[in-house]
């Protein structure tokens, strides 16, 4: 019984220690915001895979957006528009990780949770095709 309790305590302790600020607070997805003033309504693709419709907010799993991913807006009778998404380090998470020790920072880099897509907010206007 004592051995089982010790193992359980070690597992819980490891779970707590292996978490980091961006992993806990950052969630498992990113929100991309497309201004309501943007026209026309368009389908949104990331690296060729449809992820939603704009305008509005699209929630995308973190692993879908890599450094250099291409976001494409497509609408019938309009020219497509592309944006290159870059992953930038979240300074707030970095500072908190450094204050709590270097190990959480290593975990955030290893999991990629310390990064956010840039840009995350879009105002677009598509041009009609000829």
Number of helices: 4
Tell me the total number of β-strands: 8
Computed structural class: alpha+beta
Helix content: 25-40%
The residue-averaged pLDDT reads 84
Tell me the major beta sheet.
5 strands, antiparallel
The dominant shape is elongated
What is the N-to-C order of secondary-structure elements (H for helix, E for strand)? Answer: HHEEEEEEHHEE
Strand order, largest beta sheet: 3-2-5-6-7
Your description of this structure?
By secondary structure, the chain is an alpha+beta fold. The chain is built from four helices and eight strands. The protein has helices at residues 2-17, 21-25, 91-100, 102-111, and strands spanning 29-34, 42-46, 49-54, 56-61, 69-74, 81-89, 115-118, 121-122. Strands 3-2-5-6-7 form a five-stranded antiparallel sheet. Strands 4-1-8 form a three-stranded mixed sheet, with no helix packed on it. Strand 5 and strand 6 form a beta hairpin. The radius of gyration is 20 Å and the shape is elongated. It starts with a helix and ends in an 8-residue tail after the last strand. The model has no long low-confidence stretch (mean pLDDT 84).
What is the structure about, briefly put?
By secondary structure, the chain is α+β, with helices and mostly antiparallel strands.
Can you tag this structure with a few keywords?
130 residues, 5-stranded antiparallel beta sheet, 3-stranded mixed beta sheet, alpha+beta
